[in-house]
Amino acid sequence: MLPELLHQLVQQTVSGSESLLAPWAWAPALVLLIVLLVYGIFLRKLDYTRSLEDVGYITFDGLSRRDTANRIRRARKEGRVPPVYPNGWYLVMEGDQLKPGEAKSVQMIGKTLAVFRTESGEAHILDAYCPHFGANMGAGGRVVGDCIECPFHGWQFRGSDGRCARIPVLAEGGKIPEMARVTSHIVKEVNGGLYLWFDAEGREPTWDLPVIEEIETGEWSFKGRTRHFVNCHIEEINQNGADVGHLTTVHDPSFFGGTDLRYIFRWWSSFLWQKFSATWKPCTEP
Ligand code: FES
Ligand SMILES: [Fe+2]
């Protein structure tokens, strides 16, 4: 009885493996794999973020990478540092992340900001804390006409100049006090981005954002990005771009080599390389 059962089982297994080897069995799986690869490489928009501790840290014994990054940050010697936020245009968000009638709270340039878009499509940015009782207008504020309405007692502030336009409990003919205003920031929407002008002394923009025609006309469109959070002063990234010498040693290996600079030159990742070259010449005007 037992040998007979075993014989049957072996026969079933063999016929099963034969069917697995038949083209009609694996062809659909292969097609599916190719479709997924094509979708992943050409159609899916890459949106990848590396957090602070992901790059540049070798862990101390017994500590996680995150704890190592934090310990190094705390141990850093404080010297003379440039202003935390250099003057210039800052990207607040992509334009399509703010729908008409929507308000958002954003933390940047050392402030909490209320960013909102009117129904007619105009974007405004105000300091978020209401001068009445300090509510964050970006969190729960309602867009009313060209104003944002504070979620606490309903005062309304104009996006264009930050002045209070309405206080619901104000008696007929009552005067809106002068203090009822918040700072309104200079905003510009260009190249698909929503930008804010920051100047430490409150001056007007000293330069304009260049318009990239290919983006404005739709010839170029967003296909993907990677974002890296790093532990440095905001200007260091830009200044590092001038250091052409590091491009070959740091950036030539492909991402297959990983992010640990000790091991990025691996034989199995060397089938793909990036080649950078750059030269500098004096600017004709400042
Ligand atoms: S806190 Fe904003 S209206 Fe009172
Ligand atoms: Fe670099």
Automatic annotation (TrEMBL):
SUPFAM superfamilies, per database record: ISP domain
Gene Ontology MF: a single term: metal ion binding
Transmembrane segments: 20-42
Chief localisation class: membrane
EC number(s) on file: 1.14.19.21
Record keywords: 2Fe-2S, Iron, Iron-sulfur, Membrane, Metal-binding, Oxidoreductase, Transmembrane, Transmembrane helix
Catalytic reaction annotation: cholesterol + NADPH + O2 + H(+) = 7-dehydrocholesterol + NADP(+) + 2 H2O; cholesterol + NADH + O2 + H(+) = 7-dehydrocholesterol + NAD(+) + 2 H2O
Signal peptide: none
Cofactor(s) listed in the protein's UniProt record: Fe cation
Name this protein carries in UniProt: cholesterol 7-desaturase
Organism from which the protein derives: Macrostomum lignano
